[in-house]
Amino acid sequence: MPAALHSYTARRIAQTVLVVILTYVLVFFILFILPGDPIQQQIENPQNPIPAADAKILLQYYHVDRSGLDQFWIAFRRLVQGDLGYSLTTGKPVASLILQAIPQTLALASTALVFTGVIAFVIALAAAFAPSSVIRGIARALPGAFLATPSFLVGFLLLQLFSFQLGWVSAIRDEGFKSVILPALALAIAVSGPIAQVLIQGLNRAYGEPFVTVLRARGLGEARIVLGHVLRNAAIPTVTLLGLTLGELLAGSVVTETIFSRTGIGFLTQQAVREQDAPVILAVVMLVSTVFALTVLITDLIYPLIDPRIAARPIPATADQASD
Amino acid sequence: MDNDESARLKLPVLSVRDLAVVYGGRRDRLDSTALHGVSFDIAAGETLALVGQSGSGKSTLALAAAGLLPANGRIVHGEVHLRGERVTHHDRRRWQKLRGKVLGFIPQDPLGSLDPLQRVGHQLAQSLILHGIARRSEAREQAIGLFDRVGIREPRLRFDAYPHELSGGQLQRVLIAIAVAAHPSLLVADEPTSALDVTVQRRILDLIEDLQDELSLSLLLITHDLALAKERSHRLVVLNHGAVRETGDTATIMTAPRDSYTVQLLADAPALSPDKFDTLRHARGPLAAVPAIEIRDLTKTFRNRSTAHVAPALDKVSFTVTRGAVHALVGESGSGKTTAARIVAGLSGFDSGSVTVADRTLPLHPPATNHHARTLQLVYQNALAALDPKFTIAEALAEPLRIHRLGSAAQRHASIRAILEQVGLPDSILERRPRDLSGGQRQRVAIARALLLQPELLVLDEPTSALDVTVQARLVELLMELKQRNGLTYLFISHDLSLVRQIADEITVLSAGKVVETGPADRILSSPSHPYTADLLAAVPGRGGFRSAA
């Protein structure tokens, strides 16, 4: 059993590294090697011409005259050394741009994740087990309503109420954690719908399993049955979705960051795409793909802790593997 | 106090009076009555068997008596007393005090009845702590002792196992340990062994009986198996459509049933009428020794690609099916029966040996399209899974004819109608879908579809094991009739030896992928030469006598 768990872990880590590397290769070739040289374009940009001396430095730095493969190896070696290149619009190092944006996004994403978890959990428990059928009905309708409400609308409503009407938090100034709450709530409302939905389904399915009848027959109270047994059995699909959501949140939310004037990864992405700032785009894509691969890896590693059958499970039986 | 206690002992442990249970919401008028006017008592130490077909209300009765009715079910009439306490309208909280302590519950499906994510030992220890039988520090040792008592091998090791790591029989032992953990007076067992192999079934029932004597437990045994009820119960309640048809001493009912429904049930139980088809067989006379299927040294191995684990499913299997015979392939789960059936049907390949079906030698690797579909057809155990849920019955039946481009549309229609008549289904069924039919009807559709191509051979993989006794009896009668009319040969896979005894001409016994014994049914059943066969035969319920009074 531990041996199976180790090989499972090793296999998943290797897959994750491979996914990140392949993403890098793919994105690099799309951005830099395919026709339509982003550096040359930026230099010749009529709205924002780069001085000849600077242009020369840029061309030298990126070795545009060499073959695609050479360019890739140069960039890859620099990447390993922590050099992500320079922004084509501001000339600042890409690494420092990213490092500046990360804390903003991290604070927002982690707070939003906590809100998401709490909202989804409360809605799902209410939808599955509330004693009143009216409350169950309302809770069942909420995920759909959340999903159907655009996050900019939620953001504007929250700003209207808490910043402009009540004046609890500034709409413009950064006031630390206080400024995180509203955008995090707007994000959480947007992403908690599907998670609550999946958790409701999981709870209902697990609650209908025969072992619940047996637990009841053993004399366990409903609260212990639900919190101690049903919840864990319902958790796997929810954990998957929560992991993907975390990836999404860490990738930065363009809309929410714009509304609440935060300068996180979402804001950086939006600017880079608008200015066709290829090195920044590449770095952002790499960051996002790494974050996604890691969250998926972590959720995969959490599965066996929740369900011991997952690590021990052999390759699924093929069609001709009959069992009687 | 002493007087109270002795008065209490004289009371029935469970008393059900005129009980009526209804399913359905309070507001909608489509209430369905699951039970009406059911009464019975169970005395201390007594076993009462509740027999009936599915839908007879026997499980509802068990759940009502244990306070476990689902949310849409409710008691609308009558009384339930548990050890003298009126529990008819107990709420959750009051039931919770009785569960485990007064009443233990053994479920039908051991595989789904334990939380899959918790170690089995913890689940038992949880019950011990919950009911104050053991303190937290001593729960582990007590649980291991109890595991040992219920016959779990290496209890210390098994304590930390997860449910998926144990076999069905071992899991049922865990569930029994949990059920008796807090010393209840009554056990409610809902088909406790119907998901298990016969030999395991016997050992589990023996264990329950031992515990009953040791702990002076009463047992409410719900079963569809009359032979099992005959052997294991003191008294019997026969249920049909939610009403009691007959109740009384097991021996009396079995030897002199008064109700017509009971008579029918007894006649339909294969274990209780082993010679039902003897006249049919005698009328036919002896079979000519022409082989329909010949299997020599058949070997098949499954490899698990990730663990490189090699499991032989069939190991040098040889047997011959005589043309016109019912050849039974028997064995417990995992013995390789289904694998052999799939190979014979040309659906899976094999490693070595030879398989000849109706003078055609099968290749090691089956071709993508099954060329001998018109010689041999396979009928699965689960007809619901074998029929496309989106197809109407008409479409499902027309499909094999379309694939083989047989006849015009009108001719196809005519042959479908003819086959429906043969399997005893009305034409009105054609526009319905599998889900709208009963289990027996679906299996008839599956048989009809297999017969449409007029094969010589049918491989029947446990065709009746998901069905009720009565439905099974009708289906077996149909199969025997079809066989005679169309001159078919059957390879009949079954774990039910009483059914095999009724219909088989030849038997092959498989155990762990090897042939233990093969030959004429009479010889194997009357004088088995291998201890495994003898063991299988001895485990068949209904062969022993009645259970003596408590």
SSE blueprint:
The complex is a heterodimer of chains A (324) and B (550).
Chain A: H1 2-33, H2 38-43, H3 52-62, H4 68-80, H5 94-129, H6 133-148, H7 151-165, H8 177-207, H9 210-217, H10 222-250, H11 254-259, H12 265-275, H13 278-306, H14 309-312
Helix pairs in contact in A: 1-13, 5-6, 5-8, 5-10, 5-12, 5-13, 6-8, 7-8, 8-10, 10-13, 12-13
Chain B: H1 2-10, E1 14-23, E2 32-42, E3 47-51, H2 58-65, E4 73-82, E5 85-86, H3 92-98, E6 103-106, H4 120-130, H5 139-149, H6 155-158, H7 168-180, E7 186-190, H8 198-215, E8 218-223, H9 226-232, E9 235-240, E10 243-249, H10 250-255, H11 260-268, H12 278-284, E11 291-304, E12 309-322, E13 326-330, H13 337-344, E14 352-357, E15 360-361, E16 376-379, H14 383-386, H15 393-403, H16 409-422, H17 439-451, E17 457-461, H18 469-486, E18 489-494, H19 497-503, E19 506-511, E20 514-520, H20 521-526, H21 531-539
Parallel strand pairs in B: 3-8, 3-9, 6-7, 7-8, 13-18, 13-19, 16-17, 17-18
Antiparallel strand pairs in B: 1-2, 1-4, 4-5, 9-10, 11-12, 11-14, 14-15, 19-20
Helix pairs in contact in B: 4-5, 4-7, 7-8, 8-21, 15-17, 16-17
Protein described:
Chain A is an all-alpha fold and 324 residues long. Chain A contains 14 helices and no strands. In chain A, helix 1 runs antiparallel to helix 13, helix 5 crosses helix 8 and helix 5 packs across helix 12. Chain B is α/β, with parallel strands linked by helices and 550 residues long. In chain B, the strands form four sheets. In chain B, strands 6-7-8-3-9-10 form a six-stranded mixed sheet, with helices on both faces. In chain B, helix 4 packs across helix 5. Chain B is globular. Chain B starts with a helix and ends in an 11-residue tail after the last helix. The chains are: A mainly alpha (324), B alpha/beta (550). Chains A and B meet through helix 9 and helix 10 of A and helix 3, strand 6, helix 4, helix 7 and helix 13 of B.
